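G., before I forget:
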Amino acid sequence: MSSSKKMTAWRMLIVCAFLLTIVTFTPLVIPKGVFEPKLFGMPYTLWMTILITMLYVVLTFIGTKVHPGKDTDK
Amino acid sequence: MTTWIIILGALYLGMLAFVATNSFKKNKNAEDYLLAGSNIGLILGFLTFAATLFSTFTLLGMPDFFRINGIGAWIFLAVSDGGMVFLILWWGYHLRKKVAEKGFNGVAGLLIKCYQNKWAGYVSFAGVFLFLVPYVAIQIRGIAIFLTAVFPDAMPFWGWAIAIVAIMLTYSEIGGLKAIMHADAIQGLTLLIVTWIIGIRCVDYFGNLENMFDQVEAVNASLLSTPGPTGLFNVQFLVASFLVILFIPVTQPQLTIRLVIMRNLKTTHMMAVAVGIFAILIILPTAFIGMYGAVRYPDLATADFLSRVLLYEQPDFIAAIAVVGLLAAGLSTTDSQIFALGTEVRSLLKGDEKKILSITRYSIFGFAVVALIFSVLASDQLVMLARVSFAGTAMLAPMILTGVLSKKAMGSEIIIATAMALLIFILSLLGVVPSEIGPVRLDLLLLILLGAFSAISYQLRK
């Protein structure tokens, strides 16, 4: 991947991580006092935020591929 | 159980002695001793980072946090850790770039070079000292309380605390960072295995996950959503916690050092992914243990709940692994933090290397003693004290970030603002200043103001 494409992909990734963070703290993810719908018995906010944590890790993994920084080997 | 604890404990101590002496033989200079030769591979790097990040408070604090405050505890720690590992991609790159340019022997020393102002180093060290020592102390306290519960007649609480600090000092002083990292690797895996075994046994008690959460709903439905029964997990608390945990690799030197000494950028980045996976794997079973406790022991005191769920309800062998695993978990975090404080002292000094190394070793001893004293005085609110530590060191984040990101030396206004924010935060902890200004938490407000001020200063000086 060319460095300009990498830079674009990295910037898009930062936007995704930022949006994910914003969404996490809205009633969409943490509605007050709501625990339905359940997934595998887990209450809504728990499974939703487990999913969000996994998404962060996926974004981090993609980031390792597209981060435009050059190695700073010592 | 006692026999198994003695066998496993002896094995663990033997392993510590082995890695300490082995590292001692391999350490050729101060760089080897304090920074482990700065050539750490992915597996060791990830395990030492994870073991330093997840410690006693994970297995002792998080189940209780889930039990009392509900599932919002996942957002408090796991979501925040998810954000943190993403930040490592960006921060790891800029930090390593700056280190390649200016050299590294500690964060305080790096800041002095970045700001060309020794006060940047002093303020950084003061913040880290003031807020890391209590964090170290609660780890020591957590294990000591637990060991007192296991062996009530063996020795008093403070006796265990002294024993823990003595073990930690012995192998850290002998083997240096390399010994600490190898011990971390074993501890990280032990903690993960123990937590999962106990977590699975807790779910098994109900038959499956669905039954478990149904029972929790029957006992106290408010545990299944935010803000939880105590109202702790409101949006403001969660956002403030997210921010302070996000900045841990920036502000806590024991983790910053680990980003610097990784072999290369690619290894650093892959380590971040591995830590993210580890975070999910280690926190999930603590939720199961907490939910189990919410159903079976909703009203028990923390120590009673933990001793039952981690020890008395487990087969002897598992309980023994839990005891030794907890000891190892506490040691791996405290040694890294105390050692990092020593490294910070070293980075503030100039002169003969041998003399500086000697001062560093004495200061490591001194920090351990201070932490020991504080551990006797601290409260039992492990997670909340840990959070105060995260919040305190987070005040350093804008100063460290602008210092590292800026090509030019930043002005002293950021150093002064950081020192003032630290002072105000400490005064709020002492009750002199209110911990909320209107509807806003003071820690969140200070972070936002400090961040905005530093960003403006950075732009103007760019």
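The CA atoms of residues 12 and 49 of chain A lie 22 Å apart. Chain A is about 60% helix and 0% strand.

More on Monday.
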